[in-house]
Amino acid sequence: MAEIERSAGSVEEAIEAALQELGVSEQEAVIQIVQEPKSGFLGINAQPAIVRVRAVASADAADEDEVSAQADLVADFVEGLVNEMRIDVEVDIGTDHGVTYVDVWGVGDADDAGLLIGKRGHTLDALQELIKSHVQRETGERCVVLVDVEDYRKRRRSQLVRSAREAARKVQRSGQSESLPPMSAYERKLVHDTVADMGGLETASEGEEPGRYVVIRRRP
Q1: Strand runs labelled E in the chain
Q2: Which of 36, 103, 140, 160 has the fewest CB atoms found within 10 Å of its own CB?
Q3: What is the pLDDT of residues 158-184, one digit of tens each?
Q4: Three-class DSSP category at 86
């Protein structure tokens, strides 16, 4: 089974590069964070993030009991958070496209839903980062569970796949590269996977977080 190490300015960028090179999704890999990035004093002796990623059979990628335990941990965290915010919701656990979600439903007030999602999903992304840290502290494992509010992430996934296919077809016709708007590491991986299935094209992530984006171009 293939295993590689990659380094980058952040853990997410290093993982993204490794997954793209291996041609697998995060659910089809075992990821080990070898080193967290360190900025150093005034930029001196700065160290990159280093990850080790191993491709495995999808059925073996994530132990079901481990994922279930993570999902329960995340659900408890989310329930505690919304209770503190005095927002009355239901929290469920489900799976879509091979990804385990903790879904927040029944946000009766549109303002409350907007508060949890934020502009362009920024609040939801920030919540996801809190959850990643919580899971890492509690289990020592990388979080593989996503939080969604009123299916925002799933709708966003469909929109991204559609936009990526449209941009890819444009590149196929014109031969000119296309740059997509900045997006999260998870969303960039969706674009990489979508374009890879179309053939004759390649993708690359460019720029620095949080403005990192995907470029689609013809293969040389």
Answers
A1: 3-8, 29-35, 49-55, 90-96, 99-105, 145-149, 178-179, 201-206, 213-218
A2: 140
A3: 999 999 999 999 999 999 999 999 988
A4: coil
Q: Is the peptide bond before 48 cis (omega within 30 degrees of 0)?
A: no
Residue with tokens 């941009």: 167
The amino acid at residue 71 is A
Domains and CATH numbers, the chain: 3-61 (no CATH), 64-150 (3.30.300.20), 156-218 (3.30.1370.50)
Q: Which residue has the tokens 């997509």?
A: 180
Across 67-71, 105-109, 208-212, which has the greatest mean pLDDT? 67-71
Quick one: average pLDDT of 76-84?
94
Strands 99-105 and 90-96 turn out to be antiparallel
Q: Which two tokens stand for residue 175?
A: 């031969």
List, in sequence order, every residue forming a beta bridge with 53; answer none if it has no partner. Answer: 4, 31
Query: What pTM, to 2 d.p., does this model score?
Result: 0.76
- Euclidean distance between CA atoms 106 and 215, whole angstroms: 37
